[in-house]
């Protein structure tokens, strides 16, 4: 039976600020290597020895992340992914229901449901556990994966397991989901050997999930079914019937179905498969330090970092050299527009900083200085009263929308590649070191007709320079037009 990866990619990861932002959350960041957490998740079944794997992952996300996700999947060689766009967030149970409804249109695969923002450092061990889970799922079980705890953790929910099952190799009956415990209870759980951390990773046949959600959450099942029935397809994107999906209740996979399986044993048995594969949900910076490669003093680094007399410290340098001197048990995170310094024991409190910035109306929680668009990206490298300077990179063959601005004029200087420019009634090519001026109110467009990235410097001037001063007349990527 075919296994199909279902990747849930909707979270914002505020505790990993300033690297993680609302428009570019942690699953899109390369936190532990060269690839992003999303890319690592999509490759988790690469060369899987335990059965046939559908090469097209099914990603459930929102409208804002769609182009970034499609581009990141393209970069790792994934062709024709199925990207379901949720018009509003409704938690994980509706997301999985959407995925199951899409999947059953092509058969009845086993769905491997994974959050996009987890770290798995031991892929062989992970795939071994998945093979065990697939055997149970093929027989109609609803499988979850329990992380073998290495410490009494109060920040995770737990799974209570029962007897070993005929599938062997550690698979056990799933008896109960347990909320986050206090310290003494967590210690008792770990000592018993019957409790596992709740990983949020699940496995079941698409039809089995749909039967369960129709039994336990019929209103949710109906709303999701109508949303998929009325969907439209746009390249790799599946756009739902918005009004129908908005009627869906919000609930998690655990609460909606998994905790209720004992009420309807005919739907399938709950199974927990122990997983010991270097798992982390990377919930905060101290968790990232724990799974990162370290030097002899316990220091972990990303980017250009110098340690001098430091111990057990994480430095994440995004844009420049960071030198740490005499730091112990610290976290330092540098981005082009913000720096965060915290003791490792207080990294959970980063969310309080994010809350304060939001309350003050600061945009630092929403986006990075470098902003990704479907055609490429731009970096706002300088700004002042009535001016802004951007570095813009346009991918080969891509084009910006045909647009105009009410409040600003623009100068474009080509520094790399060839630009095809529409400026009012004229269309022409610009080579390196050539420029053009776009007066306020002129219809204009920038395209890259070449085979290498086009890079320009844009100087904006005017009374208002916000990104919402754009009137689109035509857009290749389906964004709203006038």
Keywords:
482 residues, 3 domains, GTP-binding, alpha/beta, six-stranded antiparallel β-sheet, Spore Coat Polysaccharide Biosynthesis Protein SpsA, Chain A, five-stranded mixed β-barrel, EC 2.7.7.13, single chain, transferase, RmlC_Cupin_sf, 30 strands, 21% helix, nucleotide-binding
Structural description of this entry:
By secondary structure, the chain is an alpha/beta fold. It has three domains: 278 residues, Spore Coat Polysaccharide Biosynthesis Protein SpsA, Chain A, CATH 3.90.550; 75 residues, no CATH class; 105 residues, Jelly Rolls. It has a six-stranded antiparallel sheet with strand order 20-21-22-29-24-27, with no helix packed on it. A five-stranded mixed β-barrel has the order 6-9-7-8-12. A four-stranded mixed sheet has the order 14-16-18-19, covered by helices on one side. The longest helix is centred in the N-terminal third of the chain and has 16 residues. The radius of gyration is 25 Å and the shape is globular.
Main sheet, how many strands, which sense, barrel?
A: 6 strands, antiparallel
For the record, the count of structural domains works out to: 3
Quote the average pLDDT: 95
Number of strands: 30
Radius of gyration in whole Å, from Cα?
A: 25 Å
Which descriptor suits the 3D outline? globular
Contiguous uncertain segments of 5+ residues: none
Give the proportion of residues in helices.
10-25%
**How would you write the strand order of the largest sheet?**
20-21-22-29-24-27
CATH class of the largest domain: Alpha Beta
Strand content: 25-35%
Give me the CATH architecture of the largest domain, please: Alpha-Beta Complex
Structural class: alpha/beta
GO biological process, one term: GDP-mannose biosynthetic process
Protein name: mannose-1-phosphate guanylyltransferase
Family: Belongs to the mannose-6-phosphate isomerase type 2 family.
EC number: 2.7.7.13
């Amino acid at each position: 039976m075919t296994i199909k990866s279902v990747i849930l990619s909707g979270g914002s990861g505020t505790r990993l600020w300033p690297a993680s932002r609302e428009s570019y959350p942690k699953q899109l960041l390369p936190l532990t290597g060269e690839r992003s957490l999303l890319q690592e998740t999509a490759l988790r079944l690469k060369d899987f020895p335990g059965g046939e794997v559908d090469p097209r992952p099914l990603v459930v996300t929102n409208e804002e992340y769609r182009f970034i996700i499609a581009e990141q999947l393209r970069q790792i060689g994934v062709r024709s992914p199925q990207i379901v766009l949720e018009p509003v967030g409704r938690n994980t149970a509706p997301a999985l229901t959407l995925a199951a409804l899409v999947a059953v249109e092509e058969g009845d695969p086993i769905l491997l449901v994974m959050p996009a923002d987890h770290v798995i450092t031991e892929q062989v061990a992970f795939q071994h556990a998945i093979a065990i889970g697939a055997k149970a799922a093929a027989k109609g079980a609803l499988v979850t994966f329990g992380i073998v705890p290495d410490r009494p953790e109060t920040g995770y929910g737990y799974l209570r397991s029962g007897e070993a099952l005929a599938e062997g190799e550690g698979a056990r009956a799933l008896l109960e989901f347990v909320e986050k415990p206090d310290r003494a209870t967590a210690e008792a759980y770990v000592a018993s050997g019957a409790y596992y951390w709740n990983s949020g990773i699940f496995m079941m046949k698409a039809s089995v999930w749909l039967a369960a959600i129709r039994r336990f959450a019929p209103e949710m099942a109906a709303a999701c079914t109508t949303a998929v029935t009325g969907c439209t397809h746009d390249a790799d994107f599946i756009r739902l019937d918005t009004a129908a999906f908005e009627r869906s209740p919000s609930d998690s996979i655990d609460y909606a179905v998994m905790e209720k399986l004992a009420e309807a044993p005919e739907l399938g048995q709950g199974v927990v498969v122990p997983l010991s594969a270097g798992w982390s949900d990377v919930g905060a910076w101290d968790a990232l330090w724990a799974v990162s490669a370290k030097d002899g003093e316990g220091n972990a680094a990303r980017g250009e970092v110098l340690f001098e007399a430091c111990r057990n410290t994480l430095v994440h340098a995004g844009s420049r050299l960071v030198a740490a001197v005499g730091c112990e048990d610290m976290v330092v995170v540098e981005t082009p527009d913000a720096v965060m310094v915290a003791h490792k024991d207080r990294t959970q409190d980063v969310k309080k900083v994010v809350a304060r910035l939001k309350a003050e109306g600061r945009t630092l929680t929403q986006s990075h200085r470098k902003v990704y668009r479907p055609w490429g990206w731009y970096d706002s490298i300088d700004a002042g009263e009535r001016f802004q300077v951007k570095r813009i990179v346009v991918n080969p063959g891509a084009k910006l929308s045909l647009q105009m601005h009410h409040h600003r004029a623009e100068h474009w200087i080509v520094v790399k590649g060839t630009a095809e420019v529409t400026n009012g009634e004229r269309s022409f090519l610009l080579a390196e070191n050539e420029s053009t001026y776009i007066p306020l109110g002129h219809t204009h467009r920038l395209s890259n007709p070449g085979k290498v990235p086009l890079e320009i410097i844009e100087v904006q001037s005017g009374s208002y320079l916000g990104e919402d001063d754009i009137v689109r007349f035509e857009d290749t990527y389906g964004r709203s037009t006038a």
